[in-house]
Design goal:
There is one protein chain. Helices cover about 35% and strands about 20% of the residues. By secondary structure, it is an alpha+beta fold. The two termini are about 30 Å apart. The strands form 3 sheets. A 9-stranded antiparallel β-sheet has the order 4-3-2-1-5-6-7-9-8, sandwiched between helices. It has a 3-stranded mixed β-sheet with strand order 11-14-13. The longest helix is centred in the last third of the chain and has 17 residues.
Length: about 525
């Protein structure tokens, strides 16, 4: 049958499951990032429209007429069902101030800011840490070993990650503590910075000292996102998506490995920076900010992201039905669609400070519930407890190896769609995972959202795949799959097919199929 103009149900729902888990398990991802990056060494008032908010700054004259002064207390507007939620107004010396980036090195591509003492002091925080599993206990020990400070005595912990010259990741920890803790030898204590400690490699510390306490230079998009962060929130994460798909791909290991490809597929190419922040009390508030290229208006990007969130609940409902979770986690996993439905229902989108913004509120206990559901589901998926997709080839007489499936007939037909979707259609036809090596494509300037038409019926699956890659190839003068100008190719890796580029495959020493070399 021709492929429909939307993905087949099983592929689409499974992808939505992974994406939702990625968002719901942000705390778990942060834990994984820290562990793998080397720590062993009722509704709130909506935000008033811009015209009704007073912009203040050093050059803004004070109101001289009391009648013109803004009234005291929160400014309320009628809820139109669309206006962004007003962020929580926390009390404290850091509330409303941006994250302090002092003592991080230049060029960080991912920044994670935590408030450990607040997390450990709240029942919600303690429950969330427990829900994330035994890995968290090991993480807390590693943090305490690296800093010489008890986790619950760290007021602020900022982690910066950047690519290293050795094709790895350099990690820097900046922590603030008070009291007698923190006297561990080897921890850099900047002069005049009370309670501040820095843990980093010697070469990185040299760069930090040169900055003399100033904020480090970062990519423009990340700097602007950091400028509009809130240091009072218990968790903030700022990241360049390109880092996750290239140098930072090693962060996606173990149970998190299933998230990397779906996150790449679901992140618009135009996004250059993301910031996710969470405030855990008295209600669970989350906020996502995205910085995009000039060609993508922030309003369009916000609507695109919101549309994807709105589609999660129905897709998740079907995806969970396809799973066969372990008995101890079955009820928790079954609750995922309801959690996603509530999150989507109470989410809003809009534009603030030139950024696409999505935000929402959830009940106070949402953090532990989301963490537990995500941790259990990812663990079970990584352990192979997902049921076989409906329509999978039955044993006996059906193609089982990749080579056999590539020779079997397949049909993919659509009026106009993207490389990403074309690959999904073929993967469903073959009942074989086909992934796109996003970082490789980006190095060649190839996007996954370019569109084309296709009508190939009852041809060997390999022929269909080569036709798709030819249609999506940026150089239209390529004469065939053996032409060096045919940049898009595929390789077989284990039990899956990987779409990559000729240059990247050669660099890794991957063996190209004969169709690209004969």
């Amino acid at each position: 049958m021709p492929a429909p103009t939307t993905p087949k149900r099983k592929s689409r729902q499974r992808n939505q499951l992974y994406i939702t888990l990625g968002v719901m398990s942000v705390l778990g991802i942060v834990v994984g990032v820290l562990v793998r990056s080397g720590l062993s060494t009722p509704k709130p008032a909506p935000t008033p429209p811009a015209a009704q908010r007073a912009e203040t700054g050093p050059n803004t004259p004070a109101a001289s007429d009391p009648s013109e002064a803004a009234p005291a207390g929160p400014q309320l507007v009628a809820d139109d069902g669309r206006t962004l939620w007003q962020a929580p107004a926390e009390q404290g010396p850091t509330s409303g101030r941006p994250i302090d980036l002092a003592y991080l090195p230049p060029g960080c591509q991912m920044i994670i800011a935590l408030r450990p003492s607040e997390i450990a002091a709240s029942e919600t925080g303690q429950a969330t840490l427990r829900a994330l599993g035994p890995g968290v206990a090991r993480l807390l020990q590693q943090i305490e070993t690296a800093t010489g400070v008890r986790f619950d005595a760290i007021e602020r912990l900022t982690v910066g990650l950047r690519p290293s010259s050795a094709q790895g990741i350099e990690t820097t920890l900046v922590f603030v503590s008070s009291g007698a803790d923190g006297a561990k030898p080897g921890v850099y204590r900047p002069a005049g910075a009370d309670g501040v400690g820095v843990v980093a490699a010697p070469a990185v510390l040299s760069e930090i000292r040169e900055l003399q306490g100033a904020a480090p230079p970062l990519r423009r998009e990340l700097e602007l996102l950091a400028k509009h962060s809130d240091a009072g929130r218990q968790l903030s994460m700022i990241v360049s998506p390109n880092f996750l798909y290239a140098d930072g791909k090693q962060l996606f290991s173990g149970a998190a490995a299933a998230l990397r490809e779906p996150l790449f597929l679901e992140t618009p190419d135009e996004v250059r920076g993301l910031m996710l922040s969470v405030d855990t009390g008295p209600r669970f508030y989350w906020e996502l900010r995205a910085a995009s290229v000039a060609e993508m208006p922030a309003s369009k990007l916000a609507a695109t992201l919101q549309g994807r969130i709105a589609g999660w609940p129905s897709g998740l409902q079907l995806a969970v039905l396809d799973m066969d979770p372990a008995p101890h986690g079955r009820r928790v996993v079954a609750g995922l669609p309801a959690m996603a439905r509530v999150a989507a229902q109470y989410s809003r989108y809009g534009v603030q400070n030139g950024h696409a913004v999505l935000n929402g509120y959830l009940p106070a206990g949402a953090g532990p519930s989301l963490a537990l559901a995500a941790e259990l589901t990812l663990a079970q998926l990584s352990a192979g407890t997902q049921g076989a997709p409906a329509g999978a080839p039955a044993a006996g007489g059906q193609p089982t190896t990749i080579a056999e499936k590539l020779r079997a007939p397949a049909t993919v037909s659509f009026a106009r769609d993207t490389l990403e979707m074309a690959v999904r259609y073929l993967a469903d036809e073959m009942a074989t995972p086909i992934t796109i090596q996003g970082a490789d494509l980006q190095l060649e300037g190839i996007t996954k959202n370019q569109s084309f038409e296709l009508d190939v019926k009852d041809r060997p699956a390999e022929e269909v795949l080569v036709t798709i890659l030819s249609k999506a190839n940026p150089d239209k003068t390529a004469t065939g799959p053996t032409d060096p100008k045919q940049k898009l190719v595929y390789v077989v890796s284990g039990d899956r097919i990987v779409v990559t580029t000729r240059a990247a495959a050669a660099k890794r020493g991957d063996t190209l199929p004969p169709v690209f070399s004969e």
